[in-house]
Amino acid sequence: MSAEQLLKVSGLQMRFGGLLAVDGIEFDVRANEVFAIIGPNGAGKTTVFNCVGGFYKPTAGDIRLQGQAITGLPSHQVARRGLVRTFQNIRLFRQLTVLENLMVAQHLKVNRNILSGLFTTPAYRRAERAALEHAAQWLERVGLTSVANREAGTLSYGHQRRLEIARCMITRPRLLMLDEPAAGLNPQEKIELQEMVDGLRNEFGISVLLIEHDMSLVMGVSDRILVMEHGKPIMIGKPDEVRNDPRVIKAYLGED
Which structural domain range is residue 112 located in? Predict the structure, then answer.
């Protein structure tokens, strides 16, 4: 394994009955890198995401996080190893407050032993206090302190997206997977999203794996890009290489 390699996907294949949805996908995500996967609708991008994130068990292939095999592990075990994701359709606890969403996300880090909670031991109180302070720091980091006590479902779409990303980051992941994060955002919110991704990478040294249709965001934030079509890879390259590649232009625009 390369010293800078965080995620390695080799020979990924996914069948649904007789449909070969993904075939021969190989890529790596390096430390402190933003790596994007793009392609026309139906290219298989989300299927790749679901295989990497533990929502699908691949038909074939190997997925490794920091050299350790995670192929076929369920999503909660993948998350415990430091790989977390958002969804195109935001999945928050809508009836809980913004703050409560961030507290729930820390349940793996906080001592939730039933007896210690029942008797409110000093260790339990310290863990709760630390979790609350951590949540407050992330609310400030993503600009949601003023709405901390509002139900998450009442927030604007852009603020819900910020909360979803904060809920991932509060678990201190190694790799953040963003599934169509710009979907539903207005132009100003997209600019703020790009600034947030850049800031998270620069401040926390996190790597990001991104699926996105908004090409201005992809080209502005990505270090490297995998282009897919019909479940297969077309190329991997830097934004300028991808932008000018005839195979990519053909895949997106067709040809006479």
Answer: 92-172
Which string of DSSP letters, residue by residue, matches 165-202? HHHHHTT--SEEEEESTTTT--HHHHHHHHHHHHHHHH
Structural domains in the chain (count): 1
Note the pLDDT of residue 107. 73
141 belongs to a structural domain = yes
Contacts for 104-111: CB closer than 8 Å, 24+ residues apart:
105/167, 105/168, 105/170, 105/171, 106/131, 106/134, 106/135, 106/170, 106/171, 108/80, 108/171, 109/171, 109/172
223-255 burial code (b ≥16 CB/10 A, e <16): bbbbbbbebebbebbebeebeeeeebeebeeee
Q: Are 85 and 49 in contact (CB under 8 A)?
A: yes
* Residue 159 placed within a domain: yes
Please write the tens of the pLDDT for every residue from 185-203.
899 999 999 999 999 999 9
- For residue range 116-132, list pLDDT tens digits in order: 555 567 776 777 788 88
Q: What is the mean pLDDT of the chain?
A: 89
Q: Cα dihedral sign for 111, 113, 117, 121?
A: negative
Asked whether residue 69 is domain-assigned, the answer is no
CA–CA separation, 154 and 252 (whole Å): 37
Position 108 in a domain: yes
The pLDDT-based confidence of 1 (bands split at 50, 70, 90) is very low
